[in-house]
Amino acid sequence: MSVAAPTAQKHETSKILSALASTERPEPPGPISTSFTFGWRALLKIKHVPEQLVDVTIFPIMFTLLFTFLFGGALAGSTVEYVQFLLPGILVQGVIMITMYTGTTLRTDIEKGVFDRFRSLPIWRPSALVGMLLGDAARFTISALVTITLGLILGWRPQGGPVGVALGVLLLLVFAFSLGWVWTFLSLVLRTSNAIMGVSMLVITPLTFGSNIFVDPSTMPGWLQAFVEVNPVSHLVTAVRALMGGTDPGNGIVLTLVSSAALVAVFGSLTMWRYRDPR
Amino acid sequence: MTDLAIETHGLVKVFGSTRAVDGVDLAIPRGGVHGFLGPNGAGKTTTIRMLATLSTPDGGTARVLGRDVVREADEVRRRVSLTGQFASVDEDLTGRENLRLIGRLFGYTGPGATRRANELLEAFGLAEAGDRQVKKYSGGMRRRIDIAASIVVTPELLFLDEPTTGLDPRSRNEVWDIIRAMVGSGTTVLLTTQYLDEADQLADRISVIDSGKVIAEGTSSELKASVGSGSLHVRVMDPADRAAAQQILVRELGVEVREGVDPAALDASVDSSTVVTRALGSLDAAGITLAQFALGQPTLDEVFLALTGHTAEPEQSETEEDAA
Ligand SMILES: Nc1ncnc2c1ncn2[C@@H]1O[C@H](COP(=O)(O)OP(=O)(O)O)[C@@H](O)[C@H]1O
Ligand SMILES: [Mg+2]
């Protein structure tokens, strides 16, 4: 950097003055525009810190291989048969596990102080968080693509075809975006990344394992069946499975959209309430 | 409409049992730099965060540029900008990306935001570093990109929270120059600092804050005058003359004259410079030659000591020399 010689300094000062003289006040952007701008920020962060993509690739590979070969022989007789059942579910499981990182990422951002600047801008308040969740959708998509590719290699043959698979992923992304508000809220209430991780695991474990991801609930005891029945993840898995398998999804799609809307309404509001004064 | 940039009445913020801000009344006019001087933990950051709408007051009212910070928070956000005490840009992004991000959020189009980013990088001497991640910047460069991010759209009022804490003297001078340039362009700056010389150098008026309360207010000279004395320091050419010189000074100044550690030095607190002129004349008449004499105003440090009973220097003073 240039040494601050008196003349160089004068020069700089005049440039600062002319930069300040700008009276340009562009038209304030709308909520969608600012949300996408924050989504762009999330993508830039992935570009600069590609290590963020390790979890979205390792998790799904690990889960898919582990559960296919762990349960495949016992539950369905063969792994190829089991993977037909498991893959849509494990896709959901992988993405839901990864949504947890949203909370810790936000906590880090808030601690570093950059959210102070975002909160001091005259923009639609939720857009920084919406944008962050939109950026996360890119990571979730990568996770889904990895799982799907691995599934195809293992012999998964979705009868719904590419369109069915794409629709299934889309529905999953909608749900993941909505679930993200639970983690944003937690990260504004809990003060450390460890606490956020702990509570997130506590929520995620029953949501994913207490569902129809791994086995048909008809083999479960009554009390567990009751839980699986009301678990929104079960409805999501049912819908994704049907879309990808080319069968009738029944009310799975509607139920998933309803629970997504409910998550945004409740945890989105709670998040924004905490976001006003987040320390 | 009011002409005040900042007006608060009984502003309060409580954290648990800590009254971080405990009834602050401010009336700060538009234009120039207003200094907010106080030691670590005095409540400067907490006050600024309330004024910048980042946290809600627990009591009292605050109007910034005539708008209430709670009820008209959006209006306030449109007009002010904050450079926080800690990083207020995204360290993972490059300097240029940070400025483009803020530009887009203010409504610049893609090319418009890029143009503005380039203009600011150039003005702040960061053109070469523009494509490096901010986490790789030096302390001084970070402060500059922080300040640049605050003026992507020129604010009417800029909050600068300890902009030079932890900087080396050269970077500190650079930040001072930037602040002077901003004031020259008509922006009002509220500057917090723990450094007495910084407030002295930059601020038109100073509020001294301690334990969440404003304990004094005025120009730097007014604050010094309120402590009531300057200091006279003389060194005689021949140490043998010191006793005689001391007698003369006591007689002429009518105050206590202390012997310095240096065997030729004498120190005294004085109220006006006219008696000093007379005293120096008497020394001359008595044939005592002086090697050196200096008449100084009290430092703000002495002011702080007089006002609060303790000094304002941070507990563990940074390895920093006075940059002035
Ligand atoms: N988020 C917080 N939670 C609890 N105490 C806080 C918080 N922020 C500040 N404080 C306390 O409030 C007081 C004032 O802090 P601060 O405004 O940061 O002082 P300054 O900026 O003058 O150094 C300190 O005692 C500090 O410990
Ligand atoms: Mg502070």
From TrEMBL, chain A:
Keyword Lyase: no
Keywords, comma-separated and alphabetical: Antibiotic resistance, Cell membrane, Membrane, Transmembrane, Transmembrane helix, Transport
Domain of life: Bacteria
InterPro entries according to UniProt: ABC2_TM, ABC2_TM_bact-type, ABC_2_transport, T7SS_ABC-Transporter
Coiled coil: none
Annotated transmembrane regions: 53-76, 82-106, 127-156, 162-183, 195-215, 253-273
Record's subcellular location: Cell membrane
An annotated Gene Ontology molecular function: ABC-type transporter activity
GO terms classed as biological process: response to antibiotic
Membrane topology of the entry: Multi-pass membrane protein
Gene Ontology CC, one term: ATP-binding cassette (ABC) transporter complex
Limits of the ABC transmembrane type-2 domain: 51-278
Similarity comment: Belongs to the ABC-2 integral membrane protein family.
Name of the protein: Transport permease protein
From TrEMBL, chain B:
InterPro entries: AAA+_ATPase (IPR003593), ABC_transporter-like_ATP-bd (IPR003439), ABC_transporter-like_CS (IPR017871), ABC_transporter_ATP-binding (IPR050763), DrrA (IPR005894), P-loop_NTPase (IPR027417)
Membrane topology of this protein: Peripheral membrane protein
GO MF annotation, one: ATP binding
Compartments it resides in: Cell membrane
Pfam family, one: ABC_tran
A cellular component annotation (GO) from this entry: plasma membrane
Span of domain ABC transporter: 6-236
UniProt keywords, alphabetically: Antibiotic resistance, ATP-binding, Cell membrane, Membrane, Nucleotide-binding, Translocase, Transport
Any Gene Ontology biological process: doxorubicin transport
Superkingdom assignment: Bacteria
The family this protein is said to belong to: Belongs to the ABC transporter superfamily. Drug exporter-1 (DrugE1) (TC 3.A.1.105) family.
Protein name as catalogued: ATP-binding cassette domain-containing protein
